[in-house]
Amino acid sequence: MTEANPIRSEIDLNADGLHTGYLRLPHSVHRSAYGWIPVPIASIRNGKGPSVLLMAGNHGDEYEGQILVSQMMREIDPQAVRGQIIFLPMADFPAAEAGLRTSPLDGGNLNRSFPGDPAGTPTQVIADYIENTLLSRVQYLIDLHSGGSSLVYDGANMLAIEPRDAEERDRLHGLLTAFGLPRAFLHPPNPVHASTAARRQGAISILTELGGGGAVQAALLREARHGLLHLLGHIGVLTGPLVPARPPGETRFMRVSGSRHYVYAYERGVYEPLVELGEAVEADQPAARIHFPDTPLREPVTLHFGAAGLVVCKRATAAVQRGDCLLHLAEPDE
């Protein structure tokens, strides 16, 4: 017998109109014996049509998506919706409230916790609810990420799981083109990611990576808002004057191909990048140096790229430890 998820929604997801409230996750602590964790949620439902889960705060230190989902809640006229949009602006509320990538309650990384566990830690319970209650009722997941505190992406990017066949590829390319951000990366499925959770539930997922570095860039927000509204119109869940006539731009399709596209620190020290975001690089080209100010006269260690490609992401902070990601690449998708 499958254990029931303890989260209870304050809103009826089957009700027409705009409804806002919280998902209540019971959480008994010293401060509050009968307390609950408030995960914000909203729903706009109007007649028949597609259903979409618009999610942000999957990682709590990624702020661009939290702003965008909150904007969408306020701006979208319920009468312009054909179907349903479910809004989850702070999916991992404990992490988002603390401004951390992972939950301060259990150390859990929500986007490494699917399919979750209804009897597990708070992060596992939230993952189970998202997968088995929310994703099971939608056809699309739009999961808004950024580089967070530790990474910076080059502009606005999209990610999607590699399609399984030609029909799915055409459909996915149509969705990514409708979103219209500059780059779209295809990657293999990972069973603990929300995108694969969506696939398990029969939904198709698009994820964004919008800047990062613990900051918010106004131009990226405008571009992503434009693309998001156009995508919702392309799907058919949103109509009316809020939907732009065209996407924000053309999309370049790229691929991230495993470990050869990543550069990692192997020693603790101070990281110096030797390339810039958006730069085209070659295999064996110097990528970064690690300096050791605590060891007088020690020469820095130079790290090299394992493949050619375009620099799409780099570490935001200079202090590094062994295992930290410094840079990653993507290559054209042929």
Automatic annotation (TrEMBL):
GO molecular function: hydrolase activity, acting on carbon-nitrogen (but not peptide) bonds, in linear amides; hydrolase activity, acting on ester bonds; metal ion binding
Keyword annotations of the record: Hydrolase, Metal-binding, Zinc
Location of the Succinylglutamate desuccinylase/Aspartoacylase catalytic domain: 48-235
UniProt keyword annotation of Ribosomal protein present: no
Domain of life: Bacteria
Pfam family, one: AstE_AspA_cat
Classification via InterPro entries: AstE_AspA_cat, N-alpha-Ac-DABA-like, N-alpha-Ac-DABA_deacetylase
Co-factor(s): Zn(2+)
Protein's UniProt name: Deacylase
Lineage, highest ranks first: Bacteria, Pseudomonadati, Pseudomonadota, Betaproteobacteria, Burkholderiales
